[in-house]
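JOB MANIFEST
job_type = single_chain_structure
chain_count = 1
residues = 130
[input]
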Amino acid sequence: MAAVTFRDETATGRLVGAWQVAGLPDRMTVRELIRHRVREEVARYNASPGNHFSGLVRPDDAETELNGYRLREPRRIDWERQAEIAEHAFQSNGFFLLAGDRQVEDLDEVVDLTTDPDLVVIKLVALVGG
């Protein structure tokens, strides 16, 4: 079983957050990794819902704010809906995923977590007026 470290970074390489998940299969597709990450972060939020969600993608009806998203009111978030949003965001270049020293570009690409245990997510921010 492998352990993976999910690291969120800005486009300039500044670390925004990191956390580790152990007990994963040695090889997983990018789709499985994204879905696993989203399921974990939503489970953490749902254990103690609040007005702020720090996750890979914005929940429905939430506003983007510094380092996360503001919900109108605390509520449970559906991890499967969040996973669908994340898959779409990945496919439309809403964020990049780096495994080791290479960018992975396909949801069905297999990542060997024994050789690439660090996964870096770089979220892209839309420029005002651009």
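[summary]
The CA atoms of residues 34 and 73 lie 26 Å apart.
Residues 2-123 form one domain.
exit_status = 0
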